[in-house]
């Protein structure tokens, strides 16, 4: 990492955008903590990705799919009524919920399926929590005619029925995971077990900016289209960069996609919003790994984790299946420790309130995940001046959450 | 030449005897600390030459259902790293010779934290470590500090470890090399014996260390076949499955639990002593 020394002799960063190093570390975080069987595979993947990155044809193929398949660029929308009602900064939504399949997850899947095909892989596996990533993977597998196995926690299958049906319609075969609490972490364990067994033909499309190097880097790069578009769109709309960025954090792929292109623009304040569940003071009652966890090693990387004194991983809790993960992408852990990004949290209740507020004010039903980001926008905007600007990543639409929301609000549907 | 460790001495003695080592895996604290102690203390007499003692972890990503369940039983019974190290110390006080290798995942070691874990492991009489998710690329994390303290760091070589990569895997390995006989998780497919023999021969060309073979070895017959050409055979899932099958309806140990494991070890040992 590029550093210079300041007067006190402490290392000071020149840039926040140069990571990871060649071993896959962002400072203390990241790395490649995997079993030997997988080591040659992730080294192969790293070489293949380096090669693809430098091939203009790869970039062209991806850009074509963005334009004609997923519908990019996604709009940058001025939330006029919310802005007036909150009485402070101008609030803009980056509308990644309008992508094909309904979330930002398609950005990553299109990149990774092109990579898998380049590598000559013939079988795709993936984990999913809320099912948004699973749907995106099943979608690209249908488009490219590749067999697809999705690992999904049994608990999540129950609370995300619409996405389960979509994956099945798309031809994916769904493997319910009952180990642990049957949520995202357990699905990831099971996908890793599949990969270690089927090393020759299988490509593992990890859904978030976590896992062993090079995944956190390549997922970030594929998601950074979000932030790159915002840089152009906000200048077109307002003639300048925003004062604040806000995104929700589960594993953190939508957030790193928005944040990364802005990391060196020091006048842009950046906020990541973790899932506060029942509250950070409730033991094992939240999924805020950075605000309520400690560094550890899980799923191939070192990062902040929800864990007990003995290094046993806790399940965590969030009303949102997509944020219900005991870890977080390693680059976020590093951005937290360097102080470049401020990580806060929003509770289940605050997210539900924000979801209803946005729906009534703007006619947009957000997913529960970005509703956490919205909850922070609702706190932040009133403290800012009217000529200041917030851009929030509205990374998923709420259709998949209607049952959960209805149940939480006591509605009958 | 570095000082011989308990593991070196044991393999050298078995070489003189002309037979392969029986390496047994159980999880510390499975199904409870008391029963686990009884099993552990009984292993040498039942014929175990080396003992791998699992450090339970909530997310054993390289393990199949049998060892996952074993880890979970131990954690639910209240096992933690402190108790595991204390168990080794107790064992060592009454058995000065049988090598003990702690096996598991990095996180419980990392949060202990690592340096203190290594010091206490040495103090407890641990001889070696197998940490599944710390590859040679991260040697400075744990492997080198372990070696400095005189512990053996045992590395897994797998069917995907090709000729180009093998030297890196072997570089800081000591004690023995653990050859993983299948691509997959513990206790799943049975290994193809002929293939294992040729793979072990391949590894031998690059190292003078003993080679033990594991993953998928369940029966005395299989153990005997795998042992041909290898210096050791590792049996794990079959043993923890024997624990599981001996439990009562509530998942608690019964009078049969320790004997179920030790009897199986006994028959595996007889097969290797042929």
Concise summary:
Chain A is built from 16 helices and 16 strands. Chain A has a six-stranded mixed sheet, with helices on both faces. A four-stranded antiparallel sheet of chain A has the order 3-4-14-13.
Description:
The complex is a heterodimer of chains A (413) and B (274). Helices cover 41% and strands 19% of the residues of chain A. In chain A, helix 5 runs parallel beside helix 7 (161-169). In chain A, a hairpin with a 2-residue loop joins strand 3 and strand 4 (29-33). Chain A is an alpha/beta fold. Chain A has 2 domains: 27-67 and 105-218, Rossmann fold (3-Layer(aba) Sandwich); 71-102 and 224-409, Rossmann fold, CATH 3.40.50. Chain A is built from 16 helices and 16 strands. In chain B, strand 8 (211-214), helix 10 (220-227) and strand 9 form a beta-alpha-beta unit. A 9-stranded parallel sheet of chain B has the order 5-4-3-2-1-9-8-7-6. Chain B is globular. Chain B has 12 helices and 9 strands. Chain B has one domain: Aldolase class I (TIM Barrel, Alpha-Beta Barrel), CATH 3.20.20. The longest helix of chain B has 17 residues, at 257-273. Chain B is of the alpha/beta class and 274 residues long. Chain A binds chain B through residues 23, 31-41, 179-180, 185, 189, 192-193, 196-199, 294, 296-300, 302, 305, 307, 309-313, and chain B through 57-62, 64, 68, 75, 80-81, 105-112, 132-135, 137-138, 155-162, 165, 169, 180, 183-185, 188.
């Amino acid at each position: 990492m590029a550093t210079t020394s300041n007067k006190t002799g402490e290392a000071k960063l020149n840039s926040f955008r140069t990571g990871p190093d060649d071993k896959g570390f962002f400072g203390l975080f990241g790395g490649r903590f995997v079993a030997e069987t997988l080591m040659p595979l992730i080294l192969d993947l790293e070489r293949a990705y380096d090669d693809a990155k430098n091939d203009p044809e790869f970039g062209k193929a991806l850009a074509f799919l963005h334009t004609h398949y997923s519908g990019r660029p996604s709009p940058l929308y001025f939330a006029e009524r919310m802005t007036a009602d909150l009485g402070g900064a101008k609030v803009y939504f980056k509308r990644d919920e309008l992508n094909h399949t309904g979330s930002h997850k398609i950005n990553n899947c299109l990149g990774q399926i092109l990579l898998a095909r380049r590598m000559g892989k013939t079988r795709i596996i993936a984990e999913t929590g809320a099912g948004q990533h699973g749907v995106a993977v099943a979608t690209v597998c249908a488009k490219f005619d590749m067999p697809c196995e999705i690992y999904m926690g049994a608990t999540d299958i129950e609370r995300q029925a619409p996405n389960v049906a979509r994956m099945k319609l798309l031809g994916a075969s769904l493997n319910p995971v009952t180990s642990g609490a049957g949520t995202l972490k357990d699905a990831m364990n099971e996908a890793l077990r599949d990969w270690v067994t089927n090393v020759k033909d299988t490509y593992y499309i990890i859904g978030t900016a976590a896992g062993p190097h090079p995944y956190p880097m390549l997922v970030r790069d594929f998601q950074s289209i979000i932030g790159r578009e915002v840089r152009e769109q906000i200048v077109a709309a307002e003639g300048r960069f925003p004062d604040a960025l806000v995104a929700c954090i589960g594993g953190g792929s939508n957030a790193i996609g928005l944040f990364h292109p802005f990391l060196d623009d020091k006048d842009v304040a950046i906020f990541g919003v973790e899932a506060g569940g029942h509250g950070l003071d409730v033991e094992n009652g939240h999924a805020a790994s950075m605000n309520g966890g400690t560094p550890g090693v899980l799923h191939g990387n070192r990062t902040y984790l929800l864990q007990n004194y003995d290094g046993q991983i806790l399940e965590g809790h969030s009303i949102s299946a997509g944020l219900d993960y005991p870890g977080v992408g390693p680059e976020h852990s590093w951005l937290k420790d360097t102080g470049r990004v401020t990580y806060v949290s929003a509770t289940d209740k605050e997210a539900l309130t924000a979801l209803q507020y946005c729906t009534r004010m703007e006619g947009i039903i957000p997913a529960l995940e970005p509703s956490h980001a919205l909850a922070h926008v609702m706190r932040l905007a009133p403290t800012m001046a009217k000529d200041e600007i917030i851009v929030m990543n509205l990374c998923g639409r709420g259709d998949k959450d209607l049952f959960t929301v209805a149940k939480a609000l006591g509605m009958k549907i | 030449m570095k000082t011989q460790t308990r593991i070196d001495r044991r393999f050298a003695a078995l070489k003189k005897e002309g037979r392969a080592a029986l390496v047994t895996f159980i999880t510390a604290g499975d199904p409870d600390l008391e029963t686990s102690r009884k099993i552990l203390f009984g292993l040498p007499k039942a014929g175990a030459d080396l003992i791998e003692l699992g450090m339970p972890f909530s997310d054993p990503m390289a393990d199949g259902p049998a060892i996952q369940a074993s880890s979970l039983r131990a954690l639910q019974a209240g096992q933690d790293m402190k108790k595991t190290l204390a168990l080794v110390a107790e064992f060592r006080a009454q058995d000065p010779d049988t090598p003990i290798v702690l096996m598991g995942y990095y996180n419980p070691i990392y949060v202990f934290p690592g340096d203190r874990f290594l010091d206490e492991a040495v103090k407890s009489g641990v001889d070696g470590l197998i940490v599944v998710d710390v590859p040679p690329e991260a040697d400075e994390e744990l492997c080198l500090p372990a070696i400095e303290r005189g512990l053996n760091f045992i590395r897994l070589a797998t069917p995907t470890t090709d000729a180009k990569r093998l030297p890196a895997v072997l570089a800081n390995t000591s004690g023995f090399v653990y050859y993983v006989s299948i691509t997959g998780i513990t206790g799943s497919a049975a290994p193809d014996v002929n293939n294992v023999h040729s793979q072990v021969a391949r590894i031998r060309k690059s190292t003078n260390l003993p080679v033990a073979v594991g993953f998928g070895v369940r029966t005395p017959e299989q153990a005997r076949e795998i042992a041909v050409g290898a210096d050791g055979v590792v049996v794990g899932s079959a043993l923890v499955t024997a624990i599981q099958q001996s439990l009562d309806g509530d998942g608690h140990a019964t009078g049969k639990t320790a004997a179920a494991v030790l009897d199986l070890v006994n028959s595996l040992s007889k097969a290797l002593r042929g």
